[in-house]
Specification:
With 199 residues, the protein is α/β, with parallel strands linked by helices. The chain contains five helices and seven strands; from the N terminus they run ββαββαβαβαβα. The chain has one domain: Rossmann fold (3-Layer(aba) Sandwich), CATH 3.40.50. Helix content is 32%, strand content 20%.
Length: 199
Amino acid sequence: MCVKIETAVFETSAGVSGQLIASTLPEIAFSGRSNVGKSSLINKLLNRKSLARTSATPGKTATINFYKLDTMRLVDLPGYGYAKLSASEKQRFSQTIEHYFDDDRDLRLVLQLIDMRHPPTANDLQMLDYLVECEIPFVIVLTKSDKLNKSERARRLFELENELADFEGVQCIPFSAVNGEGVEMLRSILDEVTQERGE
């Protein structure tokens, strides 16, 4: 990997759209429902234990968190779909995320996380539709792959073909924060998309 993961630092958090930092580097955004494992994925990609703070409490990541590397930024978006959030909090999250996507940013790729053990939620499918509509490149990361045995995994991969039939041709990558499955492939993808356009 050309990107030096040891250079990664937490940069800032944005709770409202006015706190978003200027887009001065290629960005990779991490999207998914609450507690799907975005922070765990970021930590694994960067070979850190707790750079991105994980929480057992869904909905805890209420801000857009920016992590700066030498040639890119990783952008951890707030998890969606947590029922206990107030209507005003949900609206604030939604507005901040929409402003991020609508902003003139050098967004190269969205890693859309879906729990491999379960069918995509309505919110997951809505997010995928949004990315397609906005013509934002994305890859689906199937988290918690280590929690399935061989037959369960085969069944879920087969079922996902039907569940994601509207998004034919999109790359799906099984990932585990426990055994590291998918890490090297994802690092290569991030490297590739951030080296484009002459970087």
